[in-house]
Amino acid sequence: MDDNKTEGKIDEGKGRVKEAAGSLTDDDSLKNEGKVDKAAGKTKQKLGDAASGVGDAVGDAADKVKKAL
């Protein structure tokens, strides 16, 4: 589940580089591609956070069931 967060950070970083390169070279296409990569990276990070939260909740519920038995 941390894979999504790691991939997201990498994608976000690549997006920042592309966006900066597009700004420096006046390449709007590259700048926009960078913005898309950044947004995709942030989304992957959020998915990783959500998956971790669900996994924690399931683990907590399983512990409660085991204690009740």
Key terms:
0% strand, 2 helices, single chain, 94% helix, mainly alpha, 69 residues, rod-shaped
Order of helices and strands: HH
Oligomer: single chain
Instruction: State the end-to-end distance.
Output: 29 Å
Largest sheet features = none
β-strand number: 0
Helix proportion range: over 70%
Please, what is the average pLDDT? 88
Strand percentage, roughly? under 5%
Per DSSP, the total helix count is 2
Low-confidence stretches: none
Radius of gyration: 18 Å
> What's the overall geometry?
rod-shaped
The chain-level structural class is mainly alpha
How many domain regions?
1
What would you note in describing this structure?
The chain has helices at residues 2-25, 28-68. It is rod-shaped. Helices cover 94% and strands 0% of the residues. The protein has one domain (2-68).
